Amino acid sequence: MPEIIFLSPSLVPLTTAGDTAAKLQGLSLKNVAAGVWCDGRKVAEQFGEMLFTHYGVSGPIIFTLSRTVVASLDRGQRVRLCIDLKPALDHGALDQRLLREIDAHGKQEFKSLLKRLLPKKLIPVFIEQLEIPGDKKLSQLRIEDRKRLRLLLKEFALEVSGHRSFEEAIVTAGGVSTDEIQPRSMESKRVAGLFFAGEIIDIDADTGGFNLQAAFSTGWLAGRSMAG
Length: 228
Description:
35% of the residues lie in helices and 25% in strands. It folds into 3 domains: 10-86 and 156-168, Beta Barrel (Elongation Factor Tu (Ef-tu), domain 3), CATH 2.40.30; 91-150, Orthogonal Bundle (Helicase, Ruva Protein, domain 3); 177-227, no CATH class. The strands form 2 sheets. The protein has a 6-stranded antiparallel β-barrel. It has a two-stranded antiparallel sheet with strand order 1-8. The chain has helices spanning 20-23, 60-74, 91-104, 110-117, 122-130, 143-154, 210-227, and strands at residues 4-10, 14-16, 28-38, 41-52, 56-58, 79-84, 156-163, 171-176. The model has no long low-confidence stretch (mean pLDDT 95). It is elongated and about 80 Å long. The chain is α+β, with helices and mostly antiparallel strands.
């Protein structure tokens, strides 16, 4: 029998602990960077678009990160997703922007500043997590308040509790090991006349049509080889 790599869902939505995602359900974020931290170590990052759902997170960059997340969860690791809401600004540049906002609008309330920085749905979540009253005057913000706001903008964290099922996954990871297959014909190295194609093979790629192309190409090659 060929070697079979353990099957797991890939390009799949993730579930998160707590109720933060549910509070943000339906919110789509564009041009953000999402990083995966496993047992305190950053292992992957993607830039682009994502979506909050009632159970967690979804969308293109989440799908791309999901194989790393699923494998880490299977190993029993603690997985956190950290979202950089202002990836175009490093910590220093973002702090300078906050300082300019505070100096220019000191009489305004804290929630007014958040309106200029965040989508509407994120504002109450930020107020809750920062424990800064929304009606607090900007001129009354402490240095520590500004620091915590900057850190939350750059590292909006969610604890990943799991992933959705195979039924919701775009593809699967795992299958017949590529080491078992002749790459020029897709024929088994162990059993003559046995050919493999598509998702039965341990190949999976990012979203965007790459998995369809892999299925078409391996299917064409396997069929051509059998006919020959």
